[in-house]
Structures are given as C-alpha cells and as structure tokens.
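Lab notebook, bench 4. The sequencing result for the construct came back, and we need a structural model before the next group meeting so we can plan mutations. Quick request posted to the team channel:

Model the 3D structure of this chain.
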Amino acid sequence: MKDIKLIRAAKLRKESRDIAKKILDFGVKEEQKIDIIFNLALTLENNIAMKEITQILKKFREDINSVEEKDNNDKSNKILV
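Done. Here's the predicted structure in token form:
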C-alpha cells in the first residue's frame, strides 16, 4: 500500500516538474515567474497556505500603479518651443 502511494506521489511530482519546465521553455522573464507563482497560489484550496505564499510574493511583485505614478511625477514641467 505504501509503495502505491509513494509511486503516485513521485508521478505527481514529475508532472509538476514537467509543467515547470514547459513554462521555462516558453521563455518567461523573472517578473513573469513571480506573477505565475502568485496566480497559482491564488488558486490554492488551503486558505492559510494561499495567504502566506501570496503575502511573501507581494514583496517581490512590481506594483504597476506606483511605477506609473513615479513615471508621471518624474516629468518636469518644461515648455517646448
């Protein structure tokens, strides 16, 4: 019985590694990897795990709104003639 569970667990892990390899073969950037992990974490049924994982990943995700706001503030008010 343990052998069957062990074989099944090994098969599931291999499938997970294969999926990760497909994503990497697609040619994703570092920021995209974090976004993919974040979006997958949001689908977890274990609410505690989902909250902890997403909270950690939020530190590494780029906040699009703050970047746009910084870009708008960096423009100096010069008159072009």
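The chain has one domain: 2-62.
Will bring this to the meeting.
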